[in-house]
UniProtKB/TrEMBL annotation:
Family from the record: Belongs to the bacterial sugar transferase family.
InterPro entries named among the record's database cross-references: Bact_transf, EPS_sugar_tfrase, Sugar_tfrase_EpsB_2
GO molecular function: phosphotransferase activity, for other substituted phosphate groups
Name of the featured protein: TIGR03013 family PEP-CTERM/XrtA system glycosyltransferase
Species name: Rugamonas rivuli
Domain Bacterial sugar transferase residues, every copy: 271-454
Entry-linked NCBIfam families: EPS_sugtrans (TIGR03025), EpsB_2 (TIGR03013)
Pfam families: Bac_transf (PF02397)
GO cellular component terms attached to this protein's record: membrane
Subcellular location: Membrane
Transmembrane segments: 12-33, 45-66, 78-96, 108-127, 276-297
């Protein structure tokens, strides 16, 4: 993994992006006589070709082709994703052609899309075949055999990420309740460095929570680090591989000394500019949809179109969030807040669809303009649930150190939350965002949000 503006990105995903830009640029240049009118010099050729390559990569990213779980797809699945991506790219390029002089797309000009699609398919076959090779597999030894060690094994088995890693064994530490298969326990007669060399381990992950007892192998871990075998804390491992800060393996010192948490004036100014630009652009683009949604809500039951609800914002300040009403007027007759559930009977027919497509969230652009919310950030929760969750989940209040958002990392990586357990799982993504937030990460989340809206993922 590599870090770009504090965010962890797979080396293979980054290499794939660069390779696809190159092959798309090559396809555009090779077919230039078919889609560029007249004869052009190099300076007039490369700008339209670069625009084509960037638009196609953006289209593929919007439809999820660079998501962290795409490296396990077969040829058929990859082809099914390329086709709609290139259809979207074709539409975008036709719109853009009006702004780039000398560009035309017709029967002959479509050759560039055929060449580009074939080149992307070939590039993905080469990269993904290489990524799944055992030579590219990262081998880990985990120190500890408790619950966190088991989570490391489950993460490896879940096939999340562009590159695979394998847990070759666990080194038990006295004082932990074993939660891993006994067949994966490594012998204690060898030093950690000797074990790492015997099993060709690329990294050692420390999952032990209590490191103050005499059984914790501090000297042997130092020997490994000096011997060229990287040693990583479990919290850093999950942050790097899953974009999560795991609460169950988190030490307060990790948050204090681990870096990140950029709250500088420059970051605040950049984020505010991004909020206003993104919200303004989406408001203009979604205005017809918002008008239709408001009309449908009004016609369905004659009730109010908008719904205001008190939420907890930055520094635990309360504010009124604005949404399209998606539930019946008597949704909470007893006055007691309730979690939204799957197939919630309180949701109206119109509400079902505007929730599924996230249209009900669009009025929150007004909260962004007022400065109460950001476009990207942890989703704001009701004070009633915040009081409960702060008492049940450690570090839950950390998410209130920045403005809440209309969309966020938890919203694009995890399904709709409707319980304390869901809140815990989403908090792990929120903590990652709070720690590593940047304009780069905001843009990635915005692109992923488009896919969530298009395919109705996570809506209830």
């Amino acid at each position: 993994m590599i870090r770009i503006f504090h965010h962890y990105v797979s080396k293979i995903a980054f290499m794939l992006l660069l390779l696809e830009l190159l092959v798309l640029l090559t396809a555009a240049v090779a077919s230039a006589p078919l889609w560029l009118k007249g004869r052009h010099g190099a300076d007039q050729l490369y700008l339209p070709a670069l625009a084509f390559a960037l638009v196609m990569v953006l289209s593929m990213g919007t439809l999820g082709m660079y998501q962290h779980d795409q490296s396990r797809e077969d040829i058929k699945s990859t082809l099914l994703r390329i086709l709609p991506s290139f259809v979207l790219g074709f539409c975008l390029m036709n719109l853009l052609a009006n702004m780039i002089p000398g560009v035309q797309f017709g029967r002959l000009g479509s050759v560039v899309f055929v060449l580009g699609g074939a080149a992307v398919l070939l590039a993905r076959l080469v990269v993904f075949t290489s990524a799944q090779s055992s030579m590219m597999e990262q081998r880990l030894i985990v120190i500890g055999d408790g619950a966190t060690a088991r989570d490391c094994l489950e993460l490896a088995a879940s096939s999340v990420g562009f590159h695979a890693f394998k847990v070759v064994g666990f080194v038990p530490v006295a004082g932990e309740l074993s939660c891993v298969p006994s067949t994966m326990l490594l012998p204690a007669d060898l030093s950690l460095l000797a074990l790492a060399r015997r099993h060709a381990a690329d990294e050692i992950v420390v999952s032990v929570g209590d490191r103050r007892n005499g059984a914790f192998p501090v000297r042997q871990l130092l020997e490994c680090a000096l011997g060229g075998v990287p040693v990583t804390d479990a919290a850093s491992f999950f942050e790097r591989e899953a974009c999560q800060i795991r609460v169950d393996s988190l030490q307060p010192s990790y948050l204090i000394f681990g870096g990140g948490f950029d709250q500088s004036l420059l970051r605040a100014a950049v984020k505010r500019a991004f909020d206003l630009l993104a919200s303004g652009a989406i408001c203009v683009a979604a205005l017809p949809v918002m008008l239709l949604a408001a009309l449908a809500i009004r016609i369905e039951d004659g009730g109010p179109v908008f719904y205001q609800q008190e939420r907890v914002g930055r520094d635990n300040r309360l504010f009124k969030v604005l949404k399209f009403r998606s539930m019946r007027l008597d949704a909470e007759q007893d006055g007691k807040p309730q979690w939204a559930t799957l197939n919630d009977p309180r949701v109206t027919a119109v509400g079902h669809w505007i929730r599924k497509l996230r249209i009900d969230e669009l009025p929150q652009m007004l909260n962004v303009f007022k400065g109460e919310m950001s476009f990207v950030g942890p989703r704001p929760e009701r004070a009633y649930f915040v009081d409960q969750l702060c008492g049940q989940i450690a570090y839950y209040n950390v998410r209130h150190s920045i403005k809440p958002g209309i969309t966020g990392l938890a919203q694009v990586r995890y399904s709709y939350g409707a319980s304390v357990d869901d809140a815990l799982r989403k908090l792990q993504y929120d903590l990652y965002y709070v720690k590593n937030n940047s304009l780069f990460l905001d843009l990635l989340i915005l692109i992923d949000t488009v896919q969530v809206v298009l395919f109705g993922k996570g809506g209830r």
